[in-house]
Amino acid sequence: MYSRSLITTATVYQSVSLSNHPIIDKIFKAQPPIGLDFFQLVSNNTRNMKKLVSLIITALVAVSASAQFADGFYRLQCKETGRYIAIHNNYVNKESAKQTGQIDLQSLETVSDFENIVNDPGSVIYLKNTSKGYIIEGQGFTTEGRDLYLQFTEVNGAYRIFTEVTYQGVKYPPRYLRDYQPKYGSSYITTDDLKSTNWHWYVVPVTDAANQFMGLKGDVKVGNSYYTTFYAAFPIQLGSGMKAFAVNSLSDSNCTLQDIGNIVPKNTPLVIGCAGEDAASNKVTPLATGGTPVEVNKLIGEKFCYPVLTPTGDERRDNPAWNALDYDPLTMRNLGEADGKLYFVTSSDLVYVPANIAFLNVTEDA
Question: Whose C-alpha in 137, 156, 163, 179 is 20 to 30 A from the C-alpha of 49?
Fold first, then answer.
């Protein structure tokens, strides 16, 4: 699978998980616009009816109250499907609201099983409250500046999430977020009018608790040690037994690693020394701010691997949502193992650079 190409120094340190992005078709299907549900209460003038109406109003407010969340990191999980939202691209097409009445949000995919998103930075979403509603920020994606503000309405412990859309001066009815599974490819967020299905969301704070934490997977084993690489749009604090390293020098056949401490700055590709193999052994804490910028770092990071393909596998590079970097085995090296040591190696089975990783660019003869 690997052919050795570039050797690290004899001192071996520890690596985020290589997040394999599925190859899927990205075909946006038009759906009719949607509107807001509403109710009206009517009462007579009797005392008993007034009490009844008061109780009904109180109950309705409790069931569908506008939610308030503290600014912070969360995951959004669909109540009906169990899938989590994960940011796998930064493309948003508001023009589709004019064409079809909907917003193209296929960059927000949904992923089954906590184990598949525990180490995915794209699943960790920062909610920021503003006077207009909530902005979501995450792995190279934000709704800020796009005039998309989310509102959360509580319904029996979950939330309906909607946004009002204005495009070219035209205000469209609110659009509710729904988890949609197409015939081909990965599930994703749509804003169609099928509000009766897959449109309730749990808002789960990112904590150290089971099924809530963020943890890295040691996917490269060298002796009894585990390593990975990591690249995210937000800082993280490493857990106990973990270390972060930059590559501060690179020659024809060697590179050296520099320990940068336990706070990983945002947008900084690094090698991570893990405390173990599984994510629970490598818990990290997302931070809104923090970390000292690394002055010298030869590593390169990639946040997305989003090729747009037809159901038959043909590439659609002309699609504006295309966001994938071709893997070049002549000049790109990924973290790996050879001869019982930690190396940057050539991968023989990659078409595109995986998301959320760090890699080295080298000369063709390296």
Answer: 156
